[in-house]
Amino acid sequence: MSVIETVELRKTYGRLQALKGVSLRVEKGQIYGLLGQNGAGKTTLIKILLGIVGLTEGQASLLGAPAGDANARRRVGYLPEDHAFPGYHTGYSLMDFYGSLYGVPSAERKKRIPETLEQVGIAGRMHYKIKTYSKGMKQRLGIAQAMLHRPDLIILDEPTDGVDPMGRAEIRDLMAQLKDDGHTIFLNSHLLGEVELICDRVAILQQGKLVREGTIAELTKTKGTFVLGLLAGQTFPTDAVAQLGFTVRKLPDTPGHVEVTLPDGQTIEPVMKLLSGQGLTVTHIVEKKQSLEDVFMTTVEGAEPGVDRGRRRRARPVGGGE
């Protein structure tokens, strides 16, 4: 069953097109990542799903009901990116407040609150005021409130923002456990390494359009590119290899090495045979892999003609609020 589905979803604010025909589908039990630069349309999409704003054209459904349906929303837990929990609350009292809003009975709240705070690693601080919490602790508290009523779908906007590396690993483990327990997680994060480690599928939004979507393996799969190095003093027969249908690119930062891209359905064996036949010695061969960050940067730059790659890499604007 699809937990989230949009079909040709469009949203305009006056003359601004925030979403331009976005179609995606999130299945039950998936951890689904939504990526995009600031202003790409991520927050708008989430607001439409939750019924905070209406759509302009297209369709959007949440847990099998039209987006914004009150009964469906009761089955959703949500951590917004910019949450400001009142500092005078303790962690426990805040959870109790949200639990009452969710309709969790008082007796059940007394049981669930310590259990949930233990899951996110801050049970020992639940009776301290939130104003004494670090940013990472507040983030864990936000995740806890989104989990408290045992929702079918948990939407997390920047769940590991402000959390140290060890804490991020613990939150990854928590999300994996939630998935194993049957929950579906829809998250937005600017930490692409984290997304690559935990998500089953990823969608990339760019200027309101869905430009890439798929599993991590599908998105990071290369066409078949190898880096080869020859014995010092030997010259790579670029023209001869190119005549076989392979694409060869010299690597200026790595003298003596080249990058060879395979045609569809081909293996590296013809190249190795040619090199051996010419008496050349291969000292280094490794298949090149893409990271999700590589895919994201290439996708964003491809969608924005004229963008300087070096400048984009220095800025690294991948996610966050809109």
UniProtKB/TrEMBL annotation:
Pfam families: ABC_tran, DrrA1-3_C
Domain ABC transporter residues, every copy: 4-232
Keyword Signal: no
InterPro entries the UniProt entry points to: AAA+_ATPase (IPR003593), ABC_transporter-like_ATP-bd (IPR003439), ABC_transporter-like_CS (IPR017871), DrrA1/2-like_C (IPR025302), P-loop_NTPase (IPR027417)
GO MF annotation, one: ATP binding
Lipoprotein listed as a keyword: no
Cross-referenced SUPFAM superfamilies: P-loop containing nucleoside triphosphate hydrolases
Residue ranges of coiled coil: none
Superkingdom, taxonomy of origin: Bacteria
Record key words, sorted: ATP-binding, Nucleotide-binding, Transport
Similarity comment: family membership: Belongs to the ABC transporter superfamily.
Name recorded for this polypeptide: ABC transporter ATP-binding protein
Source organism (scientific name): Gemmata obscuriglobus
